[in-house]
Amino acid sequence: MDINSLLKLLADGRFHSGEELGEVLGVSRTAVWKHLRKLEPLGLVLTSVKGRGYCLEGGLELLDADAIDAALNPAARALAVELDIQSVIDSTNTRALARAAAGNARGYICLAEQQTAGKGRRGRAWVSPFGRNIYLSVVWGFDGGAAVLEGLSLAVSVAVTRALRDLAATAGDAGTRLDDIRLKWPNDVLWRGRKLAGILLEMTGDVSSFCQVVSGIGINVTMPAVAGAAIDQAWVDMETIVGRCSRNQLVAQLLNHLLPLLDDFQARGFACLREEWESLDAYRNCQVELRTATESVLGAACGVTETGGLRILVDGREQVFSGGEISLRPTA
C-alpha cells in the first residue's frame, strides 16, 4: 500500500475505521497505523476518535489527471503533450528543467502536491505545503533565443489572472472580489496588496537560437496558517477571497489560458498584451523604489514598454528597467 492510496480513501473528510481501511487496502490494522503516521510529516491534520476511526479534517482534493483533462478546452488539450503529477518532489521547475535538458520537452507539464525545495524569485524558497496549493511548471520551446522572450513573465501573469477570474466567475457574488487582483512587475499576482501567486521563468538551451523556457507558477489556494507563518511577506489565498475552490478546475483553467499564450508568444510577443497588463498594474502612477545590485532609484511608475520593460519617471526623465535581480516596492 502506498500513501496515495490511503490519502484517496481519507480525502472525503469522513471517518474511516482502521478495520475498514485495512480491508479496502488489503493490509492489517497494524500496517494501516504505520502508514497513517506517515501523514504527519506532510502537515496533514489527522483526527482519531475511538469507535469511529480516522479522518482528515476538512477533507482533501488530490490532483487528478482525468479531472484536469476533462476541463481542458480543445486548444489546450492539443498543446498539452504530457501531464506529470508528482506527490512530493524537490521542485516542479527543477524536474521540468531536467526534462528540457534531455531533449525537446515542449508541452510537458509538471504538477506536485508538495515541494520540498520550491523556488521563488531572487533565490527565495516557495512555501509548498502538501495538497493545499498549486505548484505547476510548463516547458515551451522558442526559436530565436532570449531575444524573443522579452515580456514573457508579464504575459504569463496575464494568463494567470485570466484563469483566476474565470474560475471566480462560478463563485457568484464572491467572485467579483477578484476584480481587486493587481500585477506587480515583473512576476507577482497581488490581491489588495497581498501576494496570491508568483511566477518564475527559467531557461535552458542556446541563448541565441533554440531554447526552452520553464514557466513555474505557484498559487495559494488553501494555505494552512502554520505553513503561511514561514512566508516573509503579506499573503492571501483563494479560499480567503472566494471560499473553497477546486484545484483541479483551477489547473485546467490555467492551462486553458497559458498553453495557447505560450504557443502564440513567439509570433505575437508581449505588445498585444501590454494594455491588459497595464490595466492591472499595481503601482501605475505610484511613487516607487527600485533596487538593483548596484543602485537604488526613486521615481513614479508609469507602465511598461512593448517588450515588458518597467518605465519609471525619475526627476522628470523616463528610465526603462528590464529583468534581472530587481526589487520593486511602493514608497508610501
UniProtKB/TrEMBL annotation:
This is Bifunctional ligase/repressor BirA. Acts both as a biotin--[acetyl-CoA-carboxylase] ligase and a biotin-operon repressor. In the presence of ATP, BirA activates biotin to form the BirA-biotinyl-5'-adenylate (BirA-bio-5'-AMP or holoBirA) complex. HoloBirA can either transfer the biotinyl moiety to the biotin carboxyl carrier protein (BCCP) subunit of acetyl-CoA carboxylase, or bind to the biotin operator site and inhibit transcription of the operon. Belongs to the biotin--protein ligase family. The keyword ATP-binding applies. Residues 18-37 bind DNA. One of its GO terms (biological process) is regulation of DNA-templated transcription. It comes from Exilibacterium tricleocarpae. The keyword Ribonucleoprotein does not apply. InterPro entries: aa-tRNA-synth_II/BPL/LPL, ArsR-like_HTH, Bifunct_BirA, Biotin_CoA_COase_ligase, BPL_C, BPL_LPL_catalytic, HTH_11, Transcriptional_repressor_C. It catalyses: biotin + L-lysyl-[protein] + ATP = N(6)-biotinyl-L-lysyl-[protein] + AMP + diphosphate + H(+). Keywords: ATP-binding, Biotin, DNA-binding, Ligase, Nucleotide-binding, Repressor, Transcription, Transcription regulation.
